[in-house]
Design brief:
The complex is a heterotrimer of chains A (402), B (423) and C (356).
Chain A (H helix, E strand, L loop, with lengths): L1 H6 L2 H11 L1 H17 L9 H25 L8 H14 L13 E3 L11 E3 L1 H20 L7 H21 L4 E3 L2 E2 L28 H22 L2 H11 L1 H6 L4 H26 L10 H14 L4 H23 L2 H4 L10 H15 L8 H9 L10 H8 L1
Parallel strand pairs in A: 1-2
Antiparallel strand pairs in A: 3-4
Chain B lengths: L1 H24 L12 E8 L6 H17 L3 E2 L2 E9 L11 H13 L3 E5 L4 H14 L3 E3 L30 E3 L4 H14 L4 E6 L3 H17 L2 E7 L8 H4 L6 E5 L6 H11 L4 E4 L6 H4 L8 H4 L2 E5 L8 H14 L6 H19 L1 H4 L3 H13 L4 E3 L2 E3 L12 E7 L2 E8 L7
Chain C lengths: L1 H6 L9 H32 L4 H31 L6 H19 L7 H31 L8 H22 L4 E2 L9 E3 L6 E2 H23 L1 H11 L1 H6 L4 H27 L1 E2 L3 H16 L4 H22 L4 H15 L14
Antiparallel strand pairs in C: 1-4, 2-3
Chain lengths: 402, 423, 356
């Protein structure tokens, strides 16, 4: 950076000063957000691309949540889908007609939208549901985290994975679990639908059959909020405690970091974000289907944060957007239509899995630290501050010792 | 700091470039392409995973019907576009997000006049409310879940109205709903002398719904249902639960893709004396043909299947279509769903013909005219029989065919009389 | 400061109540827990039927299913012991093994009509081929996907393994399509072979156990007696020291993957004969359960993997038969969580290198 400053002339100097300053960064980010905010206005109200963006942004929220657990605190969580499930079922229970028999079939309505103001079931306002989802998921996060407190690394992975699978089972079989007459736990694979659309005060109620732009702006604001929270958390005492635990638990403990509380806070925070994203997706997809809560989802989100750069907030955002787009836009729409465009009769849809896996493989082999690695790690790599975590190959050893 | 800048500009570049790419590559975009004399028919089916075979059969049938009509109605050209409602993450069935996207695509397109789909009842639950709001007529080739059109027992509270937010019906189907199939299965079982029956389902909308219908019909007919279980397709085998099957008869409400072959194999081995029954979800070659990975021949001999098509002896008009299908697509046997696909498109085309007058004008009025025409269908002679569409969108056909497995193919055996239980 | 520490008398460390409970439970409670289900259902059977036949059948089925899981779990545990990687692609290597065996049957014309001798030789040939192909496949995967990442953060190869898993699954889809496919039941796996004490032991059960035991014993002998096996154990314990002693770590790791792959291939053939079904997704699920078994037994520990496999097989069968097939996974994973809480190092304790 210093050389850049020396090389440029006076005009260049001003520019590079701008570039290197914190304000320069902020302006760039603001510009990007501006573009993101106005671009749907140039697209059709029901556009496919906006739809893909909405999904990508929801995944960004999820990825940021998981980043807190895995990236900041270093707790390998393979059961993140549990929080997605709880967030989605929160809106499934409290924002649909799933409990149709409550209150003598008149339903309970708290600030709910006008479309559902007279339908049976529990209908809370979406903002209330967001809060409830975050709270429920935080509690679930603590419950899941507690057994893992004394485990090391990969064992945490297996326990969280186990929890994720158990919750998936309950989701699928929930249609035969009735905790009171006619009150089923979930609707299993037959899905709870339709889920209420979002109704915010001062705004018209959303309706995804007519325009999906309001959903897009809502999730964009959610992303902005979550990003803000993440930055504040990372730079706070708690965030530093997480990073301390990740780097060396024993040293952290001896410096006075309360291990139990810190770890549980990590789970709770990560879970809360996952729950909020889950509730949003439940409303956007208008249904909550147990099929979506399989182990593959946890891996998907984990891949996003590792691809993007573990622990790095912007890296995670980029990773999430990238993977989400590869999955929902690039492979189905672009890749699969290549043969058709070239006039061939070959069908690439059968290769979707493999292409996805191949892309993951390539990115990881070429850039294992992630697209935008966390600054600390990058320093370690470049300046060799940390020891290699793996055991290295013969070649590397020869290179080092020669 | 450089990284944040890099990240931010990377984000911006990625978003903008994708946006630019999307602008260009978005086929079938809005804007009334083709003007007033070209309309679009969309078909939405799961093209990935275990359902691919049946979906392709439906598409072939639909395309054949469209070709037979010359791909036009009057002076209006018809464009056919096939959409996939499954995803790589969720193959073999309708994925909610993708289905919603397909429905929205149809809504965006101002030239959409008809939507043929979904294949899975669970998918229609998502697309129907969207299409209903846009007034687009929808016909399904295969949905059998009762709650989509009626509130008879077996449906959940709030159904079917929650799928019709405008209050008006815009959805019809060419296959009888599962209340009838449930009754048909039960009547076959009773005729075969079953006193008790084990009933399992695959826990999907279709399977669980059909199982409820079977239970209802069994209660009326006096057939005792025991050992109610749900099966999960990820289980490697079902021997453990199969060993508890002690009834005379066994019936599984599910589709082949939910590991139907393994279910029947294990039950056949564990209960050598039981008679085996399956619904239309398994009446396809992937299930019946051992050479294609279906049940082995000795198990196939014991299975009886029900599906809402009758053999070509009962329906001579079907024979001609079946032959043409075989010639055009060079296949030896015609999957029943190909016939459904053919009839779905034919019904749609017939409705279009009857509402020809309105087709060239305002698209909203055109769509409404087509909806009205569909619901006004009376005594239509078709390849699956003569039927009308009732006010719920259901077909008045209640004929179910009893099929057995011969040489690995589902073969028509006899017609199942619409028993009193069906009413 | 120094004076403070000198004058303060050290307080004796007294185990708190919770710790005492935990250590007691860790020793005996686990055995009680694992035996709880069989004992409970045994009592129930005695009162319902008057004999333990149903329980016995469950145990027999559990052992045969468990044998297959044990073979796959060994592969997981070998790899984890040496490079501390959860190889998510391992289950899919097993799946490829089933496909290779199935393909070979078709190629050499094994059908239900083939004579007994033909079937025996055909199966042996399929076993050898499946083991060879899967072993080589595993080595290639290591070379392509994991070796470049040896110096990378720990989680990177995990995701690469996932990518590899997807690729292998796609190979499966292209090979046999996306639906489950039944295969000819060559040895009539369900036919009862003999029934001691009223239990029904089918051919498939016998095959599964009879094929697994020699393989496991061969592996254990190899690892404990041969030079290469010693090299494997040395590398697992401390790779740098192993290098100092002249062991070529790269080759040793490749060898480990080869062995793991061969076991997965063998498991694939046994699975094929036992289950008579192939499916592109079967590897993912079997892999998940086998990995659970490996961890339950103590990851890095060979005997632990085998023990874990059998235990999980039994729990799975008991849950399926008594509680309901839909709850099997939940029960298995609940067991896992409890074991992890009270005995984090697994049943037989782990034998990986010191946590670094």
């Amino acid at each position: 950076m210093a050389t850049a400053r020396l090389r440029s002339g006076s005009q260049g100097a001003a520019l590079s000063r701008l570039r290197d300053s914190k304000h320069g960064n902020r302006i760039l980010v603001a510009l990007v957000f501006l573009v993101l905010i106005i671009f749907p206005l140039f697209r059709d109200p029901l556009d496919n691309f906006v739809d893909d963006m909405i999904l990508a942004l929801a995944y960004v929220v999820m990825a940021l949540g998981l980043n807190i657990v895995v990236g900041f605190a270093g707790l390998l969580d393979l059961g993140y889908v549990a929080f997605y499930a709880f967030g989605a079922y929160t809106i499934g229970w409290f924002g649909s007609d799933h409990f149709a028999f409550i209150n003598n079939e008149k339903g309970i309505h708290i600030f709910s939208g006008e479309f559902v103001s007279s339908t049976p079931g529990i209908h809370l306002n979406f903002l209330l549901i967001l809060v409830v989802a975050a709270a429920i998921c935080a509690v679930v996060g603590v419950i899941i985290g507690t057994p893992t407190l004394r485990l090391r690394g990969d064992y945490i992975a297996i326990v969280t994975l186990a929890f994720g699978e158990i919750i998936y089972r309950f989701a699928v079989n929930g249609d035969s679990i009735e905790f009171a007459k006619n009150y089923k736990l979930t609707n299993g694979r037959q899905a709870i639908s339709p889920i209420d659309q979002i109704d915010l005060p001062f705004f018209k109620e959303f309706d995804s059959a007519f325009t999906i732009r309001p959903f897009y702006w809502f999730v964009l604001s959610l992303v902005a909020l979550v990003l803000f929270c993440n930055f504040r958390l990372r730079d706070s005492r708690l965030g530093r405690a997480w990073i301390a635990i990740r780097e060396d638990e024993v040293a952290a403990a001896s410096m006075g970091v309360p291990l139990v509380k810190t770890k549980l806070m990590a789970y709770a925070a990560g879970a809360a974000f996952g729950g909020m994203a889950g509730a949003f997706l439940g409303s956007y997809l208008t249904s909550v289907n147990a099929n979506n809560f399989q182990f593959g989802f946890s891996i998907f989100v984990l891949a996003m944060i590792i691809l993007g750069g573990l622990g790095s907030i912007w890296g995670v955002v980029v990773g999430a957007v990238m993977l989400s787009f590869i999955n929902s836009y690039f492979i189905p729409d672009v890749f699969n239509s290549i043969p058709r465009d070239l006039g061939l009769d070959f069908d690439l849809t059968q290769l979707s899995f493999g292409i996805f896996g191949f892309l993951i493989l390539i990115v990881m082999v070429l850039r294992p630290e992630g697209l935008i690695p966390e600054r600390r790690r990058k320093l370690e790599f470049r300046e060799g501050l940390g020891e290699t975590e793996g055991i290295g190959t013969e070649e590397e050893v020869r290179r080092v010792t020669a | 700091m450089r990284y944040r800048r890099l990240a931010a500009s990377g984000c911006a570049v990625a978003v903008l470039s994708l946006g630019a790419a999307a602008c260009g590559g978005d086929s079938g975009s809005s804007g009334g392409s083709g003007g007033a004399n070209e309309l679009t028919i969309y078909s939405s089916l799961p093209l990935q995973g275990t359902a691919r075979g049946q979906s392709l059969a439906v598409i072939d049938g639909e395309k054949l019907a469209l070709e037979d009509a010359g791909s036009k109605v009057g002076k209006i050209k018809l464009k056919y576009e096939s959409l996939d409602d499954s995803t790589a993450q969720n193959p073999g069935t309708a994925d909610e997000g993708q289905t919603a996207q397909n429905a929205r695509k149809a809504v965006r397109d101002q030239s959409t006049i008809l939507y043929l789909g979904e294949f899975n009842s669970g998918g229609t639950k998502v697309s129907l409310p969207v299409l209903n709001k846009a007034g687009i007529p929808q016909i399904s080739p295969s949905n059998t879940y009762g709650g989509l059109t009626t509130d008879e027992p077996g449906a959940e509270p709030g159904e079917p109205d929650k799928y019709y937010p405008t209050g008006k019906r815009t959805y019809a189907r060419v296959v009888p709903r599962d209340k009838i199939q449930g009754a048909a299965l039960v009547s076959v079982m009773k005729d075969d002398g079953c006193q008790t029956a084990t009933l399992w389902d695959d826990k999907t909308t279709y399977g669980a719904g059909l199982a409820r219908n079977i239970e209802g019909a069994a209660k009326t007919a006096g057939l005792k249902i025991e050992n109610r279980q749900g099966t999960d397709r990820n289980s490697p085998n079902y021997r453990s639960i199969a060993s508890q099957v002690k009834s005379d008869c066994f019936v599984w409400a599910g589709v082949t893709g939910e590991n139907g072959v393994q279910v029947f194999k294990d039950v056949a081995a564990a209960a050598p004396q039981a008679k085996l029954y399956g619904p239309d979800g398994v009446t396809e070659e992937a299930f019946t043909n051992p050479a294609k990975g279906g049940v082995p021949a000795d198990v196939g001999k014991r299975i009886k299947l029900t599906v809402a098509t009758l053999g070509t002896e009962e329906l001579p008009q079907a024979a001609e279509v079946v032959d043409r299908f075989k010639t055009k697509y060079k296949v030896q046997s015609v999957d029943p769903y190909a016939i459904y696909g053919y009839e779905t498109m034919s019904l749609g085309l017939d409705a279009l013909k009857r509402s020809q007058a309105k087709l060239g004008g305002d698209i909203k009025a055109a769509r409404q005219a087509v909806v009205d025409a569909i619901f006004a269908t009376k005594d239509r002679k078709s390849v699956i029989g003569t039927y009308s569409i009732d006010k719920n969108g259901d077909t008045t056909l209640t004929d179910y065919g009893l099929y057995v497995i011969k040489k690995g193919l589902p073969t028509f055996d006899s017609k199942i009389a619409a028993s009193a239980a069906a009413q | 400061m120094a004076s403070e520490s000198v004058t303060r008398t050290p307080t004796p460390v007294r185990a708190s109540g919770a710790d005492a409970v935990r250590s007691w439970f860790s020793k005996y409670g686990l055995i009680i827990l694992l035996a709880a289900l069989p004992i409970y259902y045994g009592i129930k059977d005695l009162s319902d039927d008057g004999n333990l036949v149903r329980l016995g059948d469950n145990l027999v089925d559990g052992l045969s299913n468990g044998a297959i899981y044990a073979l796959i779990a060994l592969g997981y545990t070998l790899v984890y012991g040496i490079i501390e990687l959860i190889n998510f692609a391992h289950g899919d290597v097993f799946m490829i093994g089933t496909l290779v065996a199935f393909g070979l049957w078709g190629t050499i014309g094994l059908t239900l009509a083939t004579g007994t001798l033909g079937i025996v030789f055909g199966l042996l040939a399929a076993l050898v081929v499946a083991m060879a192909v899967c072993g080589v496949l595993n080595v290639m995967i290591e070379r392509v996907a994991y070796r470049p990442l040896r110096g990378a953060p720990k989680l990177a190869p995990l995701i690469t393994a996932v990518g590899m898993s997807f690729i292998l699954q796609n190979v499966g889809i292209l090979w046999i399509g996306a639906s489950q496919r039944a295969v000819p039941d060559l040895i009539h796996a369900q036919q009862q072979l003999f029934s001691p004490l009223g239990l029904s032991i089918s051919r498939g059960d016998v095959l599964a156990v009879v094929a697994t035991i020699p393989l496991v014993m061969l592996l254990t002998t190899f690892v404990s007696t041969t030079r290469l096996g010693k090299a494997m154990r040395a590398t697992a314990q401390d790779p740098d020291a192993a290098r100092l002693m002249g062991i070529n770590v790269d080759t040793t790791i490749a060898l480990t993957f080869l062995l793991g792959g061969m076991l997965a291939g063998a498991a694939g053939l046994i699975f094929l004969v036992y289950q008579t079904t192939v499916w592109y997704f079967s590897g993912f699920i079997a892999g998940l359960i086998a990995f659970t078994a490996a961890v339950m037994g103590g990851i890095g520990n060979l005997q632990g993997a085998v023990l874990g496999g059998f235990i999980i097989g039994i729990i799975q069968q008991l849950a399926e038969n008594r509680i309901g097939a839909e709850w099997t996974e939940a029960v298995v994973f609940a067991y896992l969580i409890i074991i992890m809480v009270f005995r984090p190092q697994g049943l037989l304790g782990e034998q990986t290198r010191e946590a670094g």
